[in-house]
Amino acid sequence: MKFVAGVDIGNATTEVALARIEGKDIQFLASGIGPTTGIKGTLKNINGVFMSLNNALKKVGLEYSDLDEIRINEAAPVIGDVAMETISETIITESTVIGHNPSTPGGTGIGVGTSVLVTELSKITEEKDVIVVIPACVDFAEAARLMNEAKKNVTIQGAIAQTDDGTLITNRLDKKVPVIDEVTMIDKVPLGMECAIEVAPIGSVVSVLSNPYGIATLFQLSSEETKRVVPIARSLIGTRSGVVIKTPEGDVKERSIKAGTITVIGSKKEVEVDVDEGAERIMEGIASIPDIEDIQGEVGTNAGNMLDKVRRVMANLTDKHKRDIKIQDLLAVDTFNPQKVKGGIADEFSLENAVGIAAMVKSDRLQMEIIARVLSEKLNVPVYVGGVEADMAIKGALTTPGTSTPLAIVDMGAGSTDASIINREGKVKLIHLAGAGNMVSLLIQSELGLDDFELAEDIKKYPVALVESLFHIRHEDGTAQFFDKPLDTSVFAKVVLVKDDGELVPLEGMESMERVRQVRMEAKKKVFVTNAVRSLSKVSPTGNPRDIQFVVMVGGSALDFEIPNMVTDALSDYDIVAGRGNIRGCEGPRNAVATGLALACVEEE
Ligand code: ADP
Ligand code: MG
User: Fold this and answer.
1) Has residue 421 got a pLDDT over 90?
2) Any idea where the Diol dehydratase reactivase ATPase-like domain is (predicted)?
């Protein structure tokens, strides 16, 4: 009889399966789980291994010294890294437009007039419609006084303020007009120019200035001129307030940034793709080379820097030279990235097109041998590197009730999506692909403009709801839930995450529940549906995923509340039966590799 532990060091999680082996019989005693310490495949992992082993041993009252053998995964054939590159930018020249979402603009409606400094109002002698410009040096009370005292010949149509005092000014006006505030660089607003201003009511967005014909009506433009204001109207879509100033030179442009090319190198041929052609073209390039040896970015461009960063990080971690690090796979995804508008005057942001990339390098068995040796010395227990990860994962996955060979699995982790397939004769074929849970969180983080990766992880894991009153919330699927006791006022009228235990976590600054949901679901589809199909095509005996019948999904991302359904749905188009694994009938989709490692000990008995 002997006690063995299978230890799976993943990018995110270190998992343990503890078992007792007697001859050909194996009995699983406990599982352990803990976060991986350091980057997968480096000596820093040892701490995490200790914690996860401890976690399992404690459950059954065993000590390290009771163990006869430890198997760790041949791990780290893959290490993923993700990066984001913006490929378009919006530039405003000569300040023709202000569009932003000040938190408390004053008044609502539309106004058209000539821009005039508030302190110059009294000097106007002719009949005139004006838009008043209020710099920070004039306080709200003074500004309101000057505006109320303006002479009969002057009709005030609206105001643009530098400070955050829109409401304070409006409250003091005898005749209410729309006021846009928080325009930081007010000195860039040209004076004596024709100006149109729009503030939308609470909860809505501008509708006249975001429409080219709306602008044309206000400024009486010809059809030629109307064509030129299209980018201006576009840049104001979705904002609460906007100003358009008719200056002789002004313009808004969307420019494409040269992102550089990516070259996919195979043993027989290579292809080159422009990054700014988008993710789909890049992925066609990747798919056209069956045996990728390396992927390189054009030197001196964003693409080059991005892939160079991956290489540099990996070279550091593995004590190798940068040129010896080969990129084996890459997942490119089209995304958006909020960027400050160049030449803007009110800190305008625009959602620019970007490409997100997850890259993966191959590291070697040597790395794991070193970890095994150090572990063995510290624990005084023999530690072996036991078999390739995907191989072990399939052994573990086969403990899911109702499965048998032939079977394919998709292991959806943090850094990579791995697939393997076993035929009736027990032969295994496997593939590791870049892009998994971390990539999903990164896309959510950048598209929603979050500072914090952890918050993006939470948005990935939990559904959203809107707190409509202190006694009820509206879930994202439309159902209402009522409460007996009032909810905390801090969540009132906010978009919240609904955690498993019912806790409501407010998402500060997030206005639309629909948008959070849409960004979240799109990110999951872009990464996991793409990678499930891509990985199964690669392991299919014919190269066509249709020739696979059964697929089991394992790994942490298979715990997700919607990813497995999305993948099941997409794979049913290929007539594949796919579902979430349940390792040993009790572990859910977790612990497949660790279980497989322990099982491998029996076979060698
Ligand atoms: P690895 O094998 O690379 O260590 P895991 O199999 O532990 O990875 O999976 C980690 C990934 O699973 C992370 O991206 C994490 O965000 C994700 N994950 C973990 N739990 C959940 C959950 N409940 N819902 C969605 N994703 C989850
Ligand atoms: Mg894993």
Assistant:
1) yes
2) 273-600
Give whole-number Cα distances, 604 to 34, 158, 390, in Å.
Answer: 28, 83, 19
3-state SS, residue 138: coil
Ligand 1 centroid to residue 110 C-alpha, Å: 50
Q: What is the mean pLDDT of residues 508-520?
A: 91
Q: What ligand is nearest to the CA atom of residue 73?
A: 2
Residue-level pLDDT at 285: 95
C-beta of 34 in contact with ligand 1 (< 6 A): no
CA distance 429 to 415: 20
The pLDDT, as a whole number, for residue 92 is 74
Q: Is the CB of 462 under 6 A from ligand 1?
A: no
Average pLDDT of the segment spanning 362-369: 72
Distances (CA, A) of 78 to 39, 169, 394, 412, 557: 11, 60, 17, 13, 17
Ligand 1 pocket member 10 (CB < 6 A): yes
Are 115 and 242 found together in one domain?
yes
**Listing from the earlier edge strand, what are the strands of the sheet with 428-434?**
428-434, 416-422, 407-412, 550-554, 577-580
Most confident of 43-47, 318-322, 388-392: 43-47
Give the distance between the most distant pair of CA atoms in the chain.
105
Least confident of 56-60, 143-147, 344-348: 344-348
Same domain, 189 and 337: no
Helix H or strand E encompassing 433 = strand 428-434
Q: Are the C-beta atoms of residues 356 and 25 closer than 8 Å to each other?
A: no
Residue nearest to atom 8 of ligand 1 (CA): 413
| pLDDT of 589 strictly over 90 | yes
Collapsing DSSP states into helix, strand and coil, what is residue 69? strand
Task: List b or e across 354-392, with b for residues whose CB sees 16 or more CB atoms inside 10 angstroms.
Answer: bbbbbbbbbbeeebbeebbeebeeebebebbbbbbbbbb
Neighbours of ion ligand 2 (CB under 5 A): 10, 413
Q: Is 48 in the pocket of ligand 1 (CB under 6 A)?
A: no
Instruction: Judge whether 205 and 239 are in contact, CB under 8 Å.
Output: yes
Residue 143 lies in a domain: yes
Residue 288 sits in the same domain as residue 353: yes
pLDDT tens for 536-550 read: 999 998 888 888 989
Q: Do 111 and 232 share a domain, yes or no?
A: yes
| Token pair of 12 as six digits | 């995110």
Q: 601 Cβ partners below 8 Å, 6+ apart?
A: 4, 6, 19, 21, 26, 69, 71, 386
What single-letter amino acid sits at 591?
N
Q: What is the CATH number of the domain that holds 317?
A: 3.90.470.30
Cβ of 315 below 6 Å from ligand 1 = no
| Host domain of residue 1 | 1-76+364-388
